[in-house]
Design brief:
Layout lengths: L2 H6 L3 H13 L2 H10 L7 E6 L6 H14 L4 E7 L11 H5 L1 H4 L4 E7 L11 H10 L4 E5 L10 H4 L2 E6 L4 H6 L2 H6 L2 E4 L7 H13 L12 E3 L8 H16 L3 H29 L3 H11 L5 H28 L1
Parallel strand pairs: 1-4, 1-5, 2-3, 2-4, 5-6, 6-7
Helix pairs in contact: 2-3, 2-7, 4-12, 12-13
């Protein structure tokens, strides 16, 4: 029995193996993922993002327990910094979530960024699909927290929870408008520290200045102390309320379509990069760079040349595959 069939029967070991194949971009990953994809689209994907030290992992662990108390199965994709020695994930997130690791209704997987920017790992979307096919009701995706609030998570998740701390007053002023517009729920964690109420009030003022229609979702700001689970139940309830809001009027389907387009573009970019690396021994790009420097071509024309070569190479490989299948 293949990995896909085992995953659809709830085999967590098969799920872990397939995620490893996705991370390593093996041929088996493509084959098995094509088999599980028709069985995805049921899980609700929640992005957990925020600056380093905001307590993302601790809050994620608390949210896991809150959802499990509602009899919901949970998958967690914890995006960790890469080890400088192995390129693998530094498993700090899993250590901080050890309260939930032994729960059979919870599946936690750490992914290494491997230089991938935007707070996610390249294999994040693939891991989401695997956990979805495994039958998880809720999938929590915790971003790496690289020093700035990552916007990519808002395209990969159905609901985005932005976590800040009482010392985040200046961060709110400098924060990218994109994440303020895209985040669905705001959490001031470590609310026992001085300044929590003032940051909450400041954030509510900023959110209140947004232009929105009466039917638009109105993000709320919550105070939590994740170490003791205080306030986390309210956040979990708000997440599920947001899920119901999205289900009404076809909003959830629109978000899922946006995620599908995001994944298509990410895959296309990955294929193009792999193609360039595959054809280049140093001379091809050197030649184009030389032509750019001496004015024989321009960046747009050089890019079109690469695109045409990519298309030609892809069509050739497609013909070869069809010929092989017919044989």
């Amino acid at each position: 029995m293949g990995l896909a069939s085992r995953i659809l029967e709830g085999d967590v070991q098969a799920a872990a193996r397939l995620i490893s194949h996705v991370e390593n971009e093996t041929p088996q990953a493509v084959e098995e993922m094509s088999r599980i994809y028709p069985h995805t689209g049921k899980a609700f994907v929640i992005g957990i993002t925020g600056p380093p030290g905001a307590g993302k992992s601790t809050l994620t662990d608390s949210l896991i327990r809150a959802f499990r108390q509602r009899q919901l199965s949970v998958g967690v994709v914890a995006v960790d910094p890469s080890s400088a020695f192995t390129g693998g994930a530094i498993l700090g997130d899993r250590i901080r979530m050890q309260k939930s690791c032994t729960d059979p209704g919870v599946f936690i997987r750490s992914l290494a960024t491997r230089g991938w920017i935007g707070g996610l790992a390249k294999a994040t979307l693939g891991a989401i699909h695997v956990m979805d096919a495994l039958g998880k009701d809720i999938i929590l995706v915790e971003t790496v927290g690289s020093g700035q609030i990552e916007i990519d998570i808002t395209r990969a998740a159905d609901c985005t929870v932005l976590i800040l701390t009482p010392g985040a007053g200046d961060e709110i002023q400098m924060m990218k408008a994109g994440i303020l517009e895209a985040a669905d729920i705001f959490v001031i964690n470590k609310a026992d520290l001085e300044g929590a109420q003032s940051v909450k009030a400041e954030l509510e003022i900023v959110l209140g200045m947004r232009d929105c229609r009466p039917e638009d979702w109105k993000p709320q700001v919550f105070l939590t102390e994740a170490m003791s689970d205080k306030g986390v139940e309210a956040v979990a309830g708000e997440v599920l309320r947001h899920q119901e809001y999205l289900k009404s009027g076809g909003r959830l389907e629109l978000r899922q379509k946006d995620r599908a387009k995001f994944e298509l573009l990410e895959n296309l970019e990955g294929y193009l990069k792999s193609f360039i690396v595959g054809i280049d021994d140093g001379s091809y790009l050197d030649r184009l760079a030389g032509e750019l420097l001496d004015g024989r071509t321009d960046p747009h024309s050089a890019t079109l040349e690469i695109a045409r070569r990519f298309a030609s190479d892809y069509i050739r490989k497609l013909h070869e595959e069809r010929s092989g299948n017919q044989a």
